[in-house]
Design goal:
The chain has about 325 residues and is α+β, with helices and mostly antiparallel strands. The chain is about 20% helix and about 35% strand. The N and C termini lie far apart (about 85 Å).
Length: about 325
């Protein structure tokens, strides 16, 4: 827009000219475009910095506990030993100090009646197992209810043979794996407590602090933990139990002999899954009247395959053959 200038002659000052600028005149901007970009960028950096400082070091401890109890290398970079030890001292699980008393697995049917018992009891008597979906309090996943424990086995599964099974609960390649008296795998595993998790010749789940030679006496076994319930005695959980909310696998057995395989999904914003804390698992196991139960290797790469899309997997699994 052109600048308009009006020239006025005032009496007594004919030799002077007065310039009057109209309101149309463009004023020079306070900041250049690049200065504005720099200011906005700086404000974003400051806000994000304050946000992450609050999340990592503020009073809200959930994210800090997640990093430290998940044993991430990032935690050792962000926190000193005092902070790490303080979190670990307030988030742990105390296992039952027992071995399984197999005489308590009576194979007698439960007489309790509630909605969870009805899920277990109300099934087609011709079926050796059934698979149900879990969707409770933002816990999402699946459970295999095995009425005939003799159909369960522990085998190496990969993408080429996975279609030979009706159900596959992955446990990976770490730790001790035995089957029919043979050691199939003997790699180191995480220090997670627990011990031997085996199925004996009478199809009873056995949890205990056993050595390799004892483990070979079971039909099949692995070693992991912690133990969540032994002979009906529950683990004591403090804080998050030393485990963040994520995908988890569990094997359990009721006194009536029914074996339960759980897979709880990890956090998923789209499906509303929050992942499972140890307390969530224990509450779920109690509702389904588990008498012995142990955590199995899990995490975000674990799965319970019951058909459908193949999973690119090569590792040991609890399986039900077709």
């Amino acid at each position: 827009m052109n600048e308009e200038i009006e020239v006025l002659e005032i009496e007594g000052f004919q030799d002077k000219k007065v310039e009057v600028l109209t309101l149309d005149e463009k004023k020079k901007p306070l900041f250049t475009t690049w200065q504005k970009i720099f200011i906005v960028f700086s404000l974003i950096v400051i806000v994000l910095g304050l946000f992450f400082a609050f999340v990592l070091y503020g009073k809200a401890s959930s994210f800090r506990e997640y990093l430290i109890t998940n044993n991430t290398s990032l935690a050792t970079l962000l926190y000193n030993d005092y902070t790490i030890n303080n979190v670990l001292e307030n988030n742990y699980l105390k296992e039952p100090l027992l071995n399984t008393d197999v005489t308590k697995i009576t194979f007698e049917k439960s007489k309790v009646s509630n909605k969870y018992e009805d899920i277990i009891i109300n099934h087609n008597s011709d079926k050796d197992y059934q698979i149900i979906k879990i969707n409770e309090n933002k816990l999402k996943g699946k459970m295999v209810i095995i009425y005939n424990p003799s159909i369960l086995n522990l085998e190496k599964v990969n993408e080429n043979n996975i279609d030979n099974y009706n159900a596959v609960l992955s446990i990976g390649n770490s730790g001790l794996i035995t089957n029919d008296g043979k050691v199939l795998n003997d790699n180191s595993r995480a220090n997670v407590g627990g011990g031997i998790i085996g199925i004996d010749k009478e199809n009873r789940l056995v949890l205990g602090k056993y050595g390799k030679e004892d483990a070979k006496k079971f039909k099949f076994s692995t070693d992991y933990g912690p133990f969540l319930i032994v002979n009906g005695e529950k683990a004591q959980i403090y804080g998050n139990g030393g485990y963040p909310a994520d995908a988890k696998n569990v094997i359990a057995q009721r006194q009536d002999g029914t074996i339960l395989l759980f897979h709880i999904n990890g956090f998923d914003f789209l499906t509303g899954s929050k992942g499972a804390y140890m307390s969530d698992l224990l509450n779920l196991l109690i509702k389904f009247n588990a008498y012995n139960a142990a955590l199995l290797p899990g995490g975000e790469n674990s799965f319970l395959y019951t058909g459908g899309l193949k999973n690119n997997y090569n590792g040991y699994s609890f399986v039900i053959k077709k």
